[in-house]
């Protein structure tokens, strides 16, 4: 999809990638033992074809009227054909490449500072959660935006399911690691797997959402099937795709983009029109699928629900 009528505050795709990504870096070695034990252990189930989603009958879910938007929903065709999924390439147009993502069998490890570590099959997790549809704004750090009808469940419901210890301060999420399936993960430039994190207060905020579907159907592969985050008051890189591991910890995670360029992509990454990215303005955003530019809103328009989370944070830039 060609996006036309850009003004000078909009960045080209090649400019949105950190310059040093293309410089030599030492290899990142990923690994770690699987969490032992568990309730509802994944396994012993028939294998599903890569493009089969047995949760399809659960959609569409009932829409939650508390979460609406002030603009039209982005067309599904535009959304699925213009997004970032670096595991499958640096282009925005990775929908076809992302079809290589095998979404069944799929399980999520839950561990760290929890009452009991567990590994749960994605279909068992979805059935155990209160699915609903929410209309959210989505704001990319690259100064473009969408509006999406997500289906999923509150992150708080997952927190309750995981039963973290009171000493846990952060929830860390990791995506899959399979370079044979995802060619982008063959590059040693990036610190795979993709890691993101949020505080326990953020995880328990009503807006934080675990996504399993969109547009009244199971989540498309290009959008991060079968499980991704939606944190609509933050820049989109915080909303990790294709999650396989959730760890509760008392140490702040070093996130994927923060590890590459912490002066450009911080841990907090809250949206603010008055705080520019070091290489472009955040004052306005281009609405994907249209030629419209809109003023960027503080916290992407969700200040009334999240600003109080950050009032006591001192000495940090909470907007980048």
Labels describing this entry:
12 strands; single chain; Sulfite Oxidase, Chain A, domain 2; 7 helices; alpha+beta; disordered N terminus; 320 residues; 20% strand; five-stranded mixed beta sheet; seven-stranded mixed beta sheet
Describe the structure.
- With 320 residues, the protein is of the alpha+beta class.
- The protein has one domain: Sulfite Oxidase, Chain A, domain 2, CATH 3.90.420.
- Helices cover 12% and strands 20% of the residues.
- The protein has helices at 13-16, 76-80, 122-128, 155-162, 200-203, 256-260, 303-306, and strands at residues 107-112, 118-121, 132-139, 144-154, 170-175, 195-199, 209-214, 217-218, 228-230, 243-249, 284-287, 293-295.
- It starts with 12 loop residues before the first helix and ends in a 14-residue tail after the last helix.
- 42% of the residues are buried.
């Amino acid at each position: 999809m060609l996006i036309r009528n850009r003004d000078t505050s909009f960045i080209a795709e090649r400019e949105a990638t950190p310059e040093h990504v293309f410089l030599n870096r030492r290899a990142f070695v990923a690994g770690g033992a699987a969490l032992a034990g568990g309730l509802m252990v994944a396994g012993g189930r028939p294998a599903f074809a890569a493009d089969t989603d047995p949760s399809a009958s659960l959609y569409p879910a009932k829409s939650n009227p508390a979460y609406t938007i002030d603009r039209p929903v982005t067309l599904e065709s535009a959304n699925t054909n213009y997004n970032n999924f670096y595991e499958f390439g640096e282009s925005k147009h990775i929908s076809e490449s992302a079809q290589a993502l095998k979404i069944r069998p799929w399980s999520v490890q839950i561990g760290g500072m929890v009452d009991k570590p567990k590994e749960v099959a994605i279909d068992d997790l979805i059935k155990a959660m209160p699915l609903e549809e929410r209309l959210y704004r989505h704001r990319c750090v690259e100064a473009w935006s969408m509006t999406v009808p997500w289906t999923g469940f509150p992150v708080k419901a997952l927190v309750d399911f995981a039963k973290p210890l009171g000493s846990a301060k952060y929830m860390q999420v990791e995506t899959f690691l399979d370079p044979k399936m995802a060619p982008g993960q063959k590059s040693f430039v990036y610190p795979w797997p993709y890691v993101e994190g949020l505080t326990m207060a953020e995880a328990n905020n009503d807006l934080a959402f675990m996504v399993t579907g969109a547009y009244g159907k199971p989540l498309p592969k290009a959008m991060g099937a079968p499980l991704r985050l939606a944190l609509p008051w933050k820049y989109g890189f915080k909303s990790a795709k294709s999650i396989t591991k959730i760890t509760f910890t008392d140490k702040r995670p070093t996130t994927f983009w923060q590890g590459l360029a912490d002066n450009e992509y911080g841990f907090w990454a809250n949206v603010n029109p008055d705080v520019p990215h070091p290489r472009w303005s955040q004052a306005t955003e281009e609405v994907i699928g249209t030629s419209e530019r809109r003023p960027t809103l503080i916290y992407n328009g969700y200040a009334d629900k999240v600003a109080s989370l950050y009032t006591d944070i001192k000495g940090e830039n909470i907007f980048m």
